[in-house]
């Protein structure tokens, strides 16, 4: 692969441009050039050079010859010379990795200006004001990016000069003022003992190095970490001919999305500024105008712009985010990429693009990220709350719609503090945000700023994370030093830690905590998920649910059944606990527990109709239900049938285990206290029969799952007991109740002898006893890795940092170890019983990356918590595509 790849102008488009090599910006420029869109000509220095730069802290000397040749082409195309004293070519040097990292890395504009060329630019354009403005920007950016001089040092001089000449805005400074400003900027260099290189080629060399170096700036590293961006080669560096949006009233610059990134509406959404350089829009220095006004001011350029945007959507089959500049009426596209969007927008756009014939259903499914689906399942303010006085009368300010959704939390004015208090619900309030703030933004529930538009840093980052954001709320005066903010129009003062709510969908700020609501799957969301379900050979998605309401919610969210009911959750209820304890401690009153469970199972079967309901027999060690010794008292002892507190304490202490996770739990309970298994199976089967009594057409489908089996005889013991009990109930109730028996595979030894477990037969009928395996990946991970899930939090972050783990194995399946066992077990099981159903229950069932693995193994379904069901439906379709 070439190190230097030209684009735009006379460049011949390259075959199969590769995002990893060119970076996203380089790829966009390359593709725009190839479909005939005007981009300022330039060239990409590819990402492998960034790796070389990281390893050697330098770039190969031969590279500079290539760069010289590439610049010569630009000179030819533009009819100007780099470093020419009469009509100089100027260049920009722009970072751009394969994945977008907004504002994290550096860009330098107007390279090629010096004390001589600036005069040439002034006379060539007849616009000395413009020339010196461009030069002072270069001095600022070069100082900042290449030499590490804080931008504020230059800003200080800028502000001082404005004050000196009584200028309210930058535009009031004339050429002489700006010339004076350049001298002041030189002074900043001088005070630091640093020098601005006059040689244009030396400038370009230093800028290229600095841009490659910005890959490893601490904020870029932090951003990659927060966003889990790994496996990139580095950034590319794009060197590009400068075009100017600040050459007067027929010039301008802007950014736009081809569709609304907040709602997905098919309407161009963007902002632009007449007579400005791009930086001014992004940095939120001047408040830009909506893109629609460009139609009036620059009609020709606007028309071409619309054509470009439409062509790009069709070419990339996705919503685009573009940057452009108009120089004296001529439109130049500077950047395009798939636009970041909210979950709601992602779903609407995907469905609309299919309707408009721009992409296929499969392509649309691949354009929605599991995280988008997660976002849509975030809370919102329900309509009835929006209409209530509690909401309406407490609106204290209205800003711009930075990122939709509802957030409620305590006011926090400092980024570092938000990071430290990340476990609390906070709303981060800032004048505006910069890349230094990403840690605090991540830690907050929502973001509120007083300055900056809908493409400001705060809004862009918030939307990409699905965080509600209200930006540009100019009625706020934020005094971070004193931890207060004032509503200017009313004088109301709010202090740190006061509860507020923000509505990113309307821009409203509310002075109190407003209740939120969780959403449902209908409209476009439902359409998209139904397309996901239609993808052949994808894993089905079931849910983990322990109650009627949870089951109903899961069905609403598209679950095809229950993959795991944890029966222990039925025992923790306040009213039930004394009975549970009485049975555990003296073995009495198990009928009572049977009653409780039977009624819960009825609720679940009712909610699930004829869908499978996989019930796990009791799993945790029984001492989880006994009271903590410190809470034991006279009345509790009496309630549990003890004459004396002391004896109760002794009985509780007797149940203590050193290693409860490996103690008396799972099927070991049912083996040591078989009445437990009998009771549970009776409850399940009777509940199923009860349902049919009420509605003879009902067809409940219990599947009874034996946990923590480690050896085939454990399984056999419990399976036979389950079977005889189930058959007994069938006879008693005189009903042909259907049911299945299966086991969890969560102990490594069970995985290793899966063919034996799968082959177990009922000695009477000769039928297979085991109809399904469900991989309990939580325990399987703990036991295979020998890492306790509850204690791993202490060192997993360190392991991730050192690269020992790529991902937290309790979130994403450890494919090499745990995954290998799972694959082995699946193969062994199916080798003796080809119709054995295989599935996963456990946290991994809702994790997109794990689902990809499970799909590859060929599992029939995954099971996850109800709110993860839609995410899993999408992930499972994507895995199969
Ligand atoms: P980022 O990746 O942070 O968006 P860019 O490389 O896109 O950085 O540069 C920031 C801004 O600088 C762009 O939005 C654009 O307005 C301006 N810019 C960069 N290169 C050029 C160029 N060759 N001509 C005109 N403006 C440019
Ligand atoms: Mg950009
Ligand atoms: Mg388990």
UniProtKB/TrEMBL annotation:
Its cofactor is Mg(2+). Residues 61-296, 304-350 form the Pyruvate phosphate dikinase AMP/ATP-binding domain. The keyword ATP-binding applies. It is an enzyme of class 2 (transferase). Residues 424-507 form the PEP-utilising enzyme mobile domain. The active site is at 457 (tele-phosphohistidine intermediate), 841 (proton donor). This is Pyruvate, phosphate dikinase. It catalyses: pyruvate + phosphate + ATP = phosphoenolpyruvate + AMP + diphosphate + H(+). Pfam families: PEP-utilizers, PEP-utilizers_C, PPDK_N. Substrate binds at residues 566, 616, 746, 776-779. Its EC number is 2.7.9.1. Keywords: ATP-binding, Kinase, Magnesium, Metal-binding, Nucleotide-binding, Pyruvate, Transferase. It comes from the Eukaryota. Residues 526-879 form the PEP-utilising enzyme C-terminal domain. Belongs to the PEP-utilizing enzyme family. One of its GO terms (molecular function) is ATP binding. Mg(2+) binds at residues 746, 779. The keyword Calcium does not apply.
């Amino acid at each position: 692969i070439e190190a230097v790849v030209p684009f735009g102008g006379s460049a011949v488009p390259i075959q199969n441009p590769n995002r990893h090599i060119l970076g996203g910006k380089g790829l966009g420029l390359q593709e725009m050039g190839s479909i005939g869109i005007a981009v300022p000509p330039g060239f990409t220095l590819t990402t492998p050079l960034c790796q070389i730069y990281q390893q050697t802290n330098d770039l190969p000397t031969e590279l500079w010859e290539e760069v010289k040749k590439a610049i010569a082409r630009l000179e030819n195309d533009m009819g100007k010379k780099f470093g020419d004293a009469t009509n100089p070519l100027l260049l920009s040097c722009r970072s751009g990795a394969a994945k977008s990292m907004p504002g994290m890395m550096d860009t330098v504009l107007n390279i090629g200006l010096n004390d001589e060329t600036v005069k040439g630019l002034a006379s060539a354009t007849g616009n000395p004001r413009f020339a010196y403005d461009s030069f002072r920007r270069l001095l600022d950016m070069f100082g900042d990016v290449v030499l590490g001089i804080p931008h504020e040092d230059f800003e200080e001089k800028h502000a001082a000069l404005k004050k000196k000449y009584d200028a309210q805005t930058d535009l009031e400074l004339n050429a002489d003022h700006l010339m004076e400003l350049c001298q002041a900027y030189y002074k900043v260099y001088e005070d630091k003992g640093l020098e601005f290189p006059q040689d244009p080629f030396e400038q370009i060399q230093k800028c290229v190095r600095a841009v490659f170096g910005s890959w490893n700036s601490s904020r870029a590293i932090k951003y990659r970490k927060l966003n889990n961006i790994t496996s990139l080669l580095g950034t590319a560096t794009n060197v590009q001919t400068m075009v100017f949006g600040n050459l007067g009233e027929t010039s301008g610059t802007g950014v736009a999305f081809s569709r609304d990134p907040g709602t997905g509406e098919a309407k161009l959404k963007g902002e632009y500024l007449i007579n400005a350089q791009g930086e001014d829009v992004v940095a939120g220095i001047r408040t830009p105008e909506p893109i629609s006004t460009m139609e009036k001011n620059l009609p020709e350029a606007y028309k071409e712009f619309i054509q470009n945007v439409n062509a790009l959507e069709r070419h990339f089959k996705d919503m685009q985010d573009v940057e452009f500049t108009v120089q004296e009426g001529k439109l130049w596209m500077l950047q395009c990429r798939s636009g970041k969007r909210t979950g709601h927008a992602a779903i609407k756009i995907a469905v609309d693009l299919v309707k408009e014939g721009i992409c296929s259903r499969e392509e649309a499914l691949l354009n929605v990220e599991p995280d988008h689906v997660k976002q849509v399942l975030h809370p919102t303010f329900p309509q009835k709350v929006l209409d209530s006085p509690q909401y309406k009368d407490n609106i204290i300010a209205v800003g711009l719609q930075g990122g939709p959704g509802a957030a409620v939390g305590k006011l926090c004015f400092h980024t570092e503090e938000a990071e430290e208090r990340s476990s609390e619900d906070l709303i981060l309030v800032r004048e505006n945000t910069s890349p230094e703030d990403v840690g605090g933004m991540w830690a907050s529930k929502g973001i509120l700023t007083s300055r900056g538009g809908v493409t400001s840093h705060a809004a862009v980052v918030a939307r990409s994370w699905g965080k509600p954001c209200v930006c540009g709320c100019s009625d706020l005066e934020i005094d971070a030093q004193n931890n207060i903010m004032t509503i200017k129009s009313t004088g109301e003062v709010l202090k740190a830690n006061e509860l507020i709510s923000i509505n990113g969908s309307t821009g409203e700020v509310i002075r109190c905590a407003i209740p939120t609501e969780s959403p449902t799957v209908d409209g476009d969301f439902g359409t998209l998920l139904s397309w996901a379900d239609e993808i052949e050979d994808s894993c089905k998605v079931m849910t983990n649910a322990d109650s009627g309401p949870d089951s109903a919610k899961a069905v609403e969210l598209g679950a095809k059944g229950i993959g795991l009911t944890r029966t222990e959750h039925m025992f923790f209820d306040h009213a039930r606990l004394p009975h549970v304890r009485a049975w555990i401690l003296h073995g009495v009153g198990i009928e009572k527990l049977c009653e409780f469970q039977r009624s819960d199972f009825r609720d679940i079967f009712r909610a699930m109709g004829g869908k499978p309901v996989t019930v796990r027999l009791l799993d945790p060690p029984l001492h989880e239900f006994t009271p903590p010794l410190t809470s034991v008292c006279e009345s509790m002892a009496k309630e549990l049938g003890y004459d004396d507190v002391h004896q109760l304490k002794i009985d509780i202490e007797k149940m203590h285990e050193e290693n409860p996770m490996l103690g008396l739990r799972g099927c070991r309970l049912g083996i040591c206290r078989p009445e437990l298994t009998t009771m549970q199976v009776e409850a399940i089967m009777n509940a199923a029969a009860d349902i049919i009594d009420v509605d003879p057409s009902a067809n409940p489908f219990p599947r009874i799952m034996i946990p923590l089996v480690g050896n085939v005889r454990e399984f056999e013991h419990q399976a036979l007991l389950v079977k005889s009990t189930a058959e007994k109930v069938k006879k008693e109730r005189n009903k042909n109740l259907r049911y299945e028996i299966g086991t969890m595979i969560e102990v490594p030894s069970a995985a290793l002898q899966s063919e034996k477990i799968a082959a177990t037969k009922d000695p009477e009928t000769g039928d297979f006893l085991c109809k399904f395996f469900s991989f309990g990946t939580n325990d399987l991970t703990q036991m295979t890795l020998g890492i306790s899930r509850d204690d791993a939090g202490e060192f997993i972050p360190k392991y991730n940092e050192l690269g020992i783990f790529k991902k937290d194995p309790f979130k994403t399946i450890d494919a090499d170890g745990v995954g290998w066992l799972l694959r082995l077990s699946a193969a062994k099981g199916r080798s003796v019983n080809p119709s054995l159903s295989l599935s996963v229950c456990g946290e991994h069932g809702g994790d997109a990356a794990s689902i990809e693995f499970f799909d590859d193994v060929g599992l029939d379904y995954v099971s996850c918590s109800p709110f993860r069901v839609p995410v899993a439906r999408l992930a499972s379709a994507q895995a199969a595509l």
